[in-house]
Specification:
By secondary structure, the chain is of the alpha+beta class. Helices cover 37% and strands 14% of the residues.
């Protein structure tokens, strides 16, 4: 007969994992989105993108591929751009989420948003929120990006309309505006 008793060091890990398990079914969750605390009741399988769009009605975050390949769902997690479709909402923890809706300050657009408008870096608009979030993150970390920096920051974004040259021009302009 096969002994199925776990060694002590594995048993404690298995017991800890069982204690930390959530579901099946919805669980309570609190997310800090755009500096507002939101209490949710969601299924553990819910991605951050789904929680933002479906539970919080923050539909600026787009879901294009749902596989982390197009970057339309880019949001900031503690100031760093991430693909929201690739993260479970329950894994966010106490980190701060910023969406496209939280980028502007009241009626004052973020410099990247203004530059996108001025340079017609918007075609169909589906990829725009993700591009804006990645570009704004670049500008926050590097106020004087080169064209190569901009291309690297936007390299994971798929734009079927081909607005990348306009995005590059918008970012160079946003950088110049921020310097003054």
């Amino acid at each position: 007969m096969l002994d199925t008793t776990l060694p002590d060091f594995l048993a404690s890990d298995a017991q800890a994992a069982e204690r930390d398990a959530v579901g099946p079914g919805p669980v309570p969750l609190t997310l800090d989105v755009n500096n507002v605390s939101h209490s949710l009741f969601i299924e553990p399988k819910t991605t951050l993108a789904e929680a933002l769009r479906d539970s919080l009605d923050l539909t600026g975050t787009k879901v294009g591929c749902d596989r982390g390949a197009c970057s339309a769902c880019t949001v900031w997690l503690d100031g760093k751009p991430i693909a929201a479709c690739m993260m479970l909402a329950i894994d966010v923890g106490s980190r701060k989420i910023t969406t496209i809706e939280g980028l502007a300050h009241g009626d004052e657009l973020h410099p990247v948003q203004s530059a996108f408008i001025a340079h017609d870096a918007v075609q169909c608009g589906f990829c725009t929120p993700g591009l804006v979030m990645s570009c704004a993150a670049l500008l926050e970390s590097n106020p004087t990006p080169t064209i190569d920096d901009i291309k690297a920051a936007t390299s994971g974004h798929l734009c079927r309309c081909g607005t990348h040259p306009h995005v590059h021009d918008a970012m160079l302009d946003a950088s110049r505006i921020r310097k003054t």
